Amino acid sequence: MFTKFWNLDREKQDRIVNAAMKEFSQKGYDLASTNQIVKEAGISKGLLFHYFQNKKQLYLFLFDYGYDRIVEEFYQKIDLTQMDFFKRTREAVMIKMELLTVYPDIFKFMEEALLEDSAEIKVELEKKKKEFIEINMEKFFEGVDYSKFREDVDLKIVLKIITFTLEKLSDEALFKAKLSPTHEFDYEKIRMEAEDYFDVLMKGFYKQ
Known about the structure:
Layout: H1 3-6, H2 10-31, H3 34-41, H4 45-51, H5 55-77, H6 85-102, H7 104-115, H8 122-140, H9 155-179, H10 187-205
């Protein structure tokens, strides 16, 4: 779909992506200006819409681009031979912290996308988020050793409890970021809070 864009040299691709992510991150979808994007990227507006039909298509492309970039590297780093549920989940949190320092601009854009409530793109964004979560939950937990969990509890219910707990932590972090003037995420605080929950969940659901 974006063949014309992918045929550009890497340097020009990066200029367009970086300029667009910066503008959307700073101003949100509705207030972001394609005039500012092309100025920052050093291209004409005609060329921008030659690669992407409109502002909406550009934004959704950036969401996919950012997600794919982070996920690809995440799965290069995560040890999926680690069969312990909580050890693998803990490692995932640490990798996310590491990737945050490597790709701060992409994370900033993705964070703002999670907070975005523009009516023009909200339906598409929610659909993409749901699909991405479902795909990666299945991939991430493949091969986990569930024999460490207590036999006197329903594993499906336990996994739902753990998933809901982590989702609630994520929702709270999003809510706090949305209330913050800078929309900043305190990842270290999130990591430490997640560790506390991991300890309680392990004690409650793992065999002693």
